[in-house]
Design brief:
Radius of gyration of chain B: 11 Å
Largest sheet of chain B: 4 strands, mixed
Strand content of chain B: 25-35%
Structural class of chain B: alpha+beta
Helix content of chain B: 25-40%
Shape of chain A: globular
Number of helices of chain A: 8
Order of helices and strands of chain B: EHEHEE
Number of strands of chain B: 4
Number of helices of chain B: 2
Shape of chain B: globular
Strand order of the largest sheet of chain A: 5-2-1-9-19
Helix content of chain A: 25-40%
Order of helices and strands of chain A: EHEEHEEEEEEEHEHEHEEEEEEHEHEEH
Distance between the termini of chain A: 31 Å
Structural class of chain A: alpha/beta
Distance between the termini of chain B: 20 Å
Largest sheet of chain A: 5 strands, parallel
Oligomer: heterodimer
Number of strands of chain A: 21
Strand order of the largest sheet of chain B: 1-2-4-3
Largest interface: A-B, 15 and 18 residues
Radius of gyration of chain A: 21 Å
Chain lengths: 377, 78
């Protein structure tokens, strides 16, 4: 009987791992992807939609069209994982049995976790990005605050990219002189990675983007238009854009397989659940202290696929995950830099240039016909 | 000097800025002058806690290292 592999979540990591396993194992395994919507969302595009640089249509595709023919797709919500019986229960009552399970359920955003969040803007969901785009089109100038309302969050450099691209957007609209942009940072620099923060600080200075340090957003008062930090500071705004708090998928909580944040305790090299060797986790779903990003999932997926194939064939594992991540960072004015790093090597970002901006744009465009199919490594 | 700790916060395995955020949250529960001990493993925490203490006015009373584990003692400002 072929081995049964069930993949929860049809995002970057889940889709890629399913395709790689199906390609590698052929008839030796049945691979089934379970996804709540059946639609694949290209989340790095939210930023461009919010800033009116891209149409929302290119961000979604039917998941079926991205999977190899012999990968099964079940459009349903997984509600419970039983790691002992090795089954997954679905919202409509069906139960799937697995020999190996891949949890690639991503993260969800919890706006309600911030008291007063109300209609505060974000670019961490498609509806959030579309609403922010409308608000920006109407915007006639004022104080804009951009902050982080919970750690960890997806794509740590995104708020930096947003403020620099927003600066450019407001200049093009001729309202930059009537506006101020301030990034409320959880640390004493633009974002976690020190080398990249050093690189962007002169750009902030040149473009007149302010940095408010050690400002971890705790509450919002929409009536007074103020935001307050854990550190005890309060700032006033006309337009507030926050990264909402993130948590792991409800199925992880319901199955008591995660930590307090709903993230899976994951071995940093094998990507297996620390308590259940037949459960693997990739992307945002893990508790690993690395970026929650599509890039991370992209580099983890081949490792998980290879290790599951080795298990099924009873051979020694050939690969391990070394913490590899690669991403682009838009710095405004049609320029970008790149961040490449792993567990052992912090990134040394090159000087921002047009080349990296175009590389990011080409990647965005080529995503649909390369990444899910495993054509770029 | 013997320090009386009110609380110990385990941030081992967490990457910055999570230890800072958790410390800021925990500090809310403390009375002025009380001490909190934070254990962390992210090497970046040394610089970050020093800068954070300076910026927020909560004194960093002690920084120590035992193998890969970093220990910070912070006093809630008065």
């Amino acid at each position: 009987m072929p081995a049964r592999v069930v993949v929860l979540g049809g995002g970057v990591g889940g889709t890629l791992v399913a395709n790689l396993l199906s390609k590698e194992l052929g008839q030796e395994a049945t691979v089934t992807v379970v996804d709540g919507t059946g639609m694949h969302l290209y989340q790095p595009g939210f930023l461009y939609v919010a800033l009116d640089q891209a149409n929302a249509l290119w961000l979604t595709r039917d998941e079926r069209t991205l999977l190899r023919k012999n990968v099964g797709l079940v459009v349903d919500q997984a509600t419970k994982i039983d790691p002992v019986a090795q089954t997954v229960t679905l919202a409509h009552g069906e139960t799937l049995a697995y020999d190996y399970l891949v949890v690639s359920t991503g993260s969800r955003i919890l706006r309600d976790a911030v008291p007063g969040y109300g209609d505060t803007h974000d670019f961490y969901s498609l509806d959030g990005a579309l609403r922010l785009r409308e608000e920006l089109r109407r915007f006639e100038g004022g104080r804009i605050l951009v902050g982080v309302a919970g750690i960890p969050y997806k794509c740590p450099p995104a708020p930096v990219e947003f403020v620099l691209m927003l600066d450019e957007y407001l200049r093009k609209r001729g309202i930059r002189s009537r506006s101020s942009i301030t990034l409320l940072s959880p640390l004493n620099r633009a974002f976690t990675i020190e080398s990249a923060s050093k690189l962007v600080q002169p750009i902030f200075d040149k473009q007149g983007v302010s940095l408010s340090t050690f400002f971890n957003v705790e509450t919002v008062d929409a009536a007074k238009r103020t935001v307050s930090s854990l550190e005890g500071e309060t700032a006033e705004y006309d337009l507030l854009v926050l990264v909402p708090p993130h948590k792991g998928s409800p199925v992880i909580e319901a199955s008591v397989l995660g930590d307090a944040g709903g993230w899976i305790p994951t071995d940093r090299n094998t990507l297996q659940h620390k308590a259940y060797e037949r459960i693997f986790a990739i992307g945002d779903a893990t508790d690993l202290p690395i970026s929650k990003s599509g890039s991370t999932a992209h580099f983890e997926a081949p490792v998980v696929a290879s290790r599951i194939a080795s298990f099924i064939r009873g051979t020694a594992p050939k690969t391990a995950y070394g913490g590899r991540v690669m991403c682009f960072l838009e710095t405004g004015g049609g320029r970008a830099t790149s961040l490449r790093f792993d567990y052992a090597h912090p990134p040394i970002p090159p000087k921002p240039s047009r080349v990296w901006h175009w590389a990011k744009w080409i990647f965005n465009r080529a995503y649909w016909v390369t990444v899910p199919q495993g054509r770029v490594g | 000097m013997t320090l009386t700790l009110t609380r110990t916060l385990d941030c081992k395995g967490l990457s910055c800025p999570l230890p800072i955020v958790k410390t800021a949250q925990a500090l809310r529960q403390l009375a002025p002058g009380e001490l909190i001990e934070v254990l962390a493993t992210d090497p970046g925490a040394i610089k970050d806690f020093a800068a954070w203490a300076k910026a927020t006015g909560n004194p960093l009373v002690e920084t120590a290292q035992d193998g890969s584990v970093l220990r910070f003692v912070i006093q809630k400002r008065g």
